[in-house]
Amino acid sequence: MIETAALEGLAVALGIGVLIGIERGWHERESPEGSRVAGIRTFGLIGLLGGVWALAGEVVGQIVLGFAYAAFAAVMVVVRVRAAVHTKDYGATTLVAALLTFVLGALAAKGEIAVAVPAAVVATLLLGVKPALHGLLERIDYDELLAVLQLLVMSLVLLPVLPDQGFGPWQALNPYQLWLMVVLISAISFAGYVAVRLLGRRKGLFLASLAGGLVSSTAVALSFSRLSAKNPEQGRLLAGGITLASATMYVRTLVIVAVIERGLLPTLALPLGLAAVAGLLATLAIMGRSDGDYRSEPLKLRNPFEFGMALKFGLLLGAIVLLARAFREWLGEVGIYVVSALSGFADVDAVTITVSGLLPDQLAYAAGAVAIMLAAFANTLTKTGIAIVNGGGAIARPATIGLVAPVIVGLAALAAQLWLTQQGLI
């Protein structure tokens, strides 16, 4: 059994070397014969070499494996330096890949196949996506990179030390939970922001609107309505973009609910899902009747990972949490509806998080669903007003219909669902 296990380990070590060697060989396929530092055969042998030395270390002592690795590393450094002198290529990627292959081969031979194989696959993937990674870096502005790093520091350094307990009236403000929600919303928004940056300009209005809805459907409404004022012939197309971004908001809300309070999903899935479908159908109807030809102009959205934006959202969320708790104490469920409707004019995400946090101990699921739908309706009124004021007649009518119709469908679906539940029919 031991011999069989050893042979299996060596086979995996060889396979790891061949896998990484295929990528390195493809990368250097156009280099003249004899100028390549290592290819498929060499990397295969490196993986096998690491496996053999690992087995040898079990017989004569593990320190031998350390000396073998040091000697192999020294040889590879010398070979790489001599190659760099001739080719003027001072990259160290192949050298590091060779050292890693030796280690992974040793791990495989020692039975750590569950670690070695995934690591080899990830390493090969990193080696193979070099053009994509470099292309991504070329598209990222310094301010965007700095903003991401700032939020990483705030979330990975500050978040663990924030107190996870309630403060203030009714112990409603939990610094840890509030900042955790800021990180969650920023991450979701950043996914859409990256999609707009990478796809929006090239892929056109539809994808820009879809991705923009993940960042801020209100920002999409503001950007497209202003663009419509300058290009009235594109009014219907841009109205469809606003409608699609708003429809994406309903899907985004469902994702947030699924993360924070899954128990609310059975109540909200149907009304928000139907609202999203209605929004999509309205988008197709509006765009399908348009004769305009969209001029590819970048959708301007602010980076949601900017610390200033994250801090503002955190303050807004804290204020809504405190108001919701206060109105809940003073007016009961009606108070939650009032806060949700008023706060929804500014932000649906903050209301969704606040209401989800009250479930199920302080608020019934049905009341929570109504509150979130009221916030969505209020936010839709905000976007409708933005489209009318900034876009004028070219965009006002189709945008209004495309924005309000999904909300009516969602509210009607929620009312029917609650009535049927109350009657015991579902």
Protein model, in words:
It is built from 17 helices and no strands. The chain folds into 2 domains: about 130 residues, no CATH class; about 280 residues, no CATH class. It is an all-alpha fold and about 425 residues long.
Please summarize what this structure is.
The chain is an all-alpha fold. It is 80% helix and 0% strand.
Indicate the structural class. Answer: mainly alpha
SSE ordering: HHHHHHHHHHHHHHHHH
Radius of gyration: 29 Å
Number of helices: 17
Largest sheet: none
The share of residues in helices is over 70%
Instruction: Estimate what percentage of residues fall within beta strands.
Output: under 5%
Can you tell me the residue ranges where pLDDT is under 50 for at least 5 consecutive residues?
none
Provide the number of structural domains: 2
The end-to-end span amounts to 59 Å
Mean of residue pLDDT values: 80
Beta-strand segment tally: 0
Instruction: Characterize the overall form.
Output: elongated
